[in-house]
Amino acid sequence: MSSSNKSQVKIRLFTREKDETLHVQDTPMYAPISLKRYGLSEIVNHLLGTEKPIPFDFLIDGELLRTSLDEYLVKKGLSSETTLNLEYTRAVLPPSYLSSFNNDDWVSSLDVDKESNYIVSGSYDGIIRTWDMSGKVLKQYAGHSGPIKAVRVISTTRLISAGNDHTLRLWKTKNEALKQDNNLDNGLEDDDENIENGKTLAILVGHKAPVVSVDVSINSRILSASYDNSIGFWSTIYKEMLSVDPMEEFNSSSNKISTAAKKRRKLTLKDNSIRRRAPLALLESHNAPVEAANFDLNDNTVGYSVSQDHTIKTWDLVTSRCVDTKTTSYSLLSLAQMPTLNLLACGSSARHITLHDPRVSSTSKITQQQLIGHKNFVVSLDTCPENEYMLCSGSHDGTVKVWDVRSTTAMYTITREDPSVEKGINDKVFAVTWAEKVGIISGGQDKKIQLNKGDNIFKN
């Protein structure tokens, strides 16, 4: 390269997107090394002849460009005579604020009924609520004797919840907006016509401490994570689990629990007509509270768990055995799987998110990458339903961050929008979920459910 071109670098532009209107001739060209994404987007739009500018992201060797070309060359120790292959892809626009719903207490857990797009929340007041998109509460479920820490939609007629009262509850629900189809429920329909909609079908007992996480598989199984250091393995079909006599359970545990816990147990026994069921198995290997347990999305006979004991464990759910343990340097507080990338994302007490490949031997380097940016505990994670590289995280720092794992820094930060919320005082985010037709939903200490959504441009 001549001295007159030292301020330029040779680039080759290409895209893997199937939209033929986005393809430009990939002949190498020279570009100023000072260019960042905006300037590079101008070049691509000019070459495409677009009527309206399209924002683009750029990847070099699979890594998102977040600096100028010059800074990238310096960071990688490359000469300006290097030819850079830049893959361009439609950019992800910032998720915009849609609305907030007022709840009566802290919002600790969230899920979405994918059939109806109703939002389901669990709260510290012990109530589960189903919301429509306008913020109207359609149904309330009361029965837990303590704060609810986890809630998941099983089907159009079933919910599962878990909380500080040490129990899980299977609920009967009915989505009035849908025409019921027995095939949707995978055999969950049973002889419970006498049980009212919104009532408890069964109480699942066996944990000896708060239950803080639940996950449901497509083969009618449930995993629960508890502060008793164990993971519960259950069925969504209560008939498959052994019955537990409520008084026998109370008497056997009453001498091991606190006075407050005894009072909670007595409250749960006030209606002995509710059936109680024991777990199919209790998985024990952690030596500190378990914060999350998930099924492998590619193989529902495999489970993963993370704990305050700094470990990620892999479980064979057929034999109920721990088959792998990966040790980190910090307490792990949340978990999400990115199945097509073979990665587990783990939120930590060290304020970052670490990415791990569960297939990698425990004796080798287990951390593939760290996502850094939060200023407090990362307590909730969920993946983008439309882009395999993206996830969102909720933190006690009061923010939700949107990430693309091809970069170590966050793409966008979502803050709490209510001006009455004093930042840093009562704005902790406890739960976040990402639903395809709804957007990013978050809840927390401000007693609000907040909705943010991008402009249909999340697809890669």
From TrEMBL:
Keywords: Nucleus, Repeat, Ribosome biogenesis, rRNA processing, WD repeat. InterPro entries: NLE (IPR012972), WD40/YVTN_repeat-like_dom_sf (IPR015943), WD40_PAC1 (IPR020472), WD40_repeat_CS (IPR019775), WD40_repeat_dom_sf (IPR036322), WD40_rpt (IPR001680), WDR12/Ytm1 (IPR028599). PROSITE patterns: WD_REPEATS_1, WD_REPEATS_2, WD_REPEATS_REGION. GO terms for biological process: maturation of 5.8S rRNA from tricistronic rRNA transcript (SSU-rRNA, 5.8S rRNA, LSU-rRNA); maturation of LSU-rRNA from tricistronic rRNA transcript (SSU-rRNA, 5.8S rRNA, LSU-rRNA). Pfam families: NLE (PF08154), WD40 (PF00400). It is found in: Nucleus, Nucleolus; Nucleus, Nucleoplasm. It comes from the Eukaryota. SMART domains: WD40. One of its GO terms (cellular component) is nucleoplasm. Belongs to the WD repeat WDR12/YTM1 family. Component of the NOP7 complex, composed of ERB1, NOP7 and YTM1. Within the NOP7 complex ERB1 appears to interact directly with NOP7 and YTM1. The NOP7 complex also associates with the 66S pre-ribosome. This is Ribosome biogenesis protein YTM1. It comes from Arxiozyma heterogenica.
